Amino acid sequence: MGAVRKDLTRNLGRMQPDIIEDIRNTIDNAMGLDTESWKQVCITKAMEDVVLRSTSRVLVGSSLCHNKEYLHYSIAFATSLGGGAVLVGQYMPWMLKPFFGYLGALPVYYYKQKAMKLLLPVIRDRMVNIKRKRADPSFEFHEPKDLITWITQAVLDNPETKNSPPEFLGTRLLFFTIGAIHTTIMTASNTMLDLVSSNPDAGFWEQLREEAAGVFKNADDWTNPASLPKLPLADSTIRESLRENPMLTRVILREVMPKAGVVLPSGHHIPKGAWMGANTVDLHHDNRFYPKPDDYYPFRFAKKQDDVLTEADKETLTDKASIYRKNQSLATASDVFLGFGYGKHAWCVLIANGAYPPYENPANG
Fold this sequence. Notes:
Blueprint: H1 2-31, H2 43-60, H3 62-65, H4 68-91, H5 97-135, H6 147-157, H7 166-196, H8 204-215, H9 219-222, H10 232-244, E1 250-255, E2 262-263, E3 269-270, E4 275-279, H11 280-284, H12 311-316, H13 319-324, E5 346-348, E6 351-353
Antiparallel strand pairs: 1-4, 2-3, 5-6
């Protein structure tokens, strides 16, 4: 996690030109450049291509992010592992979990071996070059800016892991594809589908295009990290789709540990060994926190801090809700917005934010 928090966050801006280039090329291939005729496009497949290519550039570098075979096996690994974990972990009766757990592990193991066959040679080569550069500063080696380099450096710097084999790093890199790629594909697809199915008279598309045109005025603006924070409407649009389409219906799952159990503020007793969690869907549709929660409004989170609440707003919002409606950017973790979890590692695309709060009963604000 240190390599992600420190190195990845610090270098994302420097990698933006390469990421933008991959996104542009992939979108052109998926959507086409013909402006005179219609083309049928599968949004999910198009977003998969875009996210997989651009995110893999950050995770495993230029060579593997353009390797179609590696991209196929890495996304298959993430899909089989993530889907199997949710199915077996949350929806399977406990007596059937061992059987279906082993059964579901078969495709995970297969895709992992296929992906590792392509990933391990790159990791081995990187480890050898980094070690040689440290032993001989005159050795000419320019470390690629990707997660392979940063994780390798972190592993070599740690006395407990410095002798770890390449398989150790490869396994961890593959696990990053679950949080960094698969969830991003779903979010991007839902965002596009929510927009195209919204009321065209609302002019959401036009407002987003106007915002983008005002920020990206020339080629340099696309590669400038300072441009992205200037897109509050786009940021809010993604967050609204996460509100409408959360990754999981239950999050922050915790097992009750005290022998006497736990008594909720409502008076309900939860015995030791039971599991508790937050209901994401109900929380995201609570009108105390979100006025007209069943309506899709992509700019819901783009309100300025000096906006004046109407009397109707004040009637439906608690004091706490009015505070949370401020500073709600896409990467802001909140206990009333659980689109990507909440805790020490609340993930949104690649960057973790937030801190684990004490449990609160939503019924009591």
